[in-house]
Amino acid sequence: LKPGVHVSAPSVEGYIPIAFKLNPSSDWSARPALFPKAEILHLVAIDETVPAYQGHFRLAREVVIAPAAKGPVSIDGTLRYQACDDTMCYIPETLPLHWEIAVR
Q1: Measured between alpha carbons, how far is 70 from 89 in angstroms, rounded to an integer?
Q2: What is the pLDDT of residues 42-82, one digit of tens each?
Q3: 40 contact partners, CB below 8 Å, separation of at least 6
Q4: Would you say 80 and 33 are in contact if contact means Cβ atoms under 8 Å apart?
């Protein structure tokens, strides 16, 4: 994220948290998403403290391919977040996610 911009962590209350969702499939199963430890930010403009991410951070999710799956296997989902800076929050975004995995 650009300097001064943050997104709310999954544990936030009252704001839109970042969410990493995968669409169900019989070809694979997904473990829960792994989020880094959130920073606790004090937002001066609204005098509130929130768990959030800034700068570079990584989300991870382990996917296990079913033994009977035939390739290629598609994994689809979404990443939803709302970026905010010191003065405003921007329109929430939902980005499509897609991976093709070769299975032999």
Answers
A1: 43
A2: 988 888 999 999 999 999 999 999 999 988 999 999 999 99
A3: 49, 50, 51, 52
A4: no
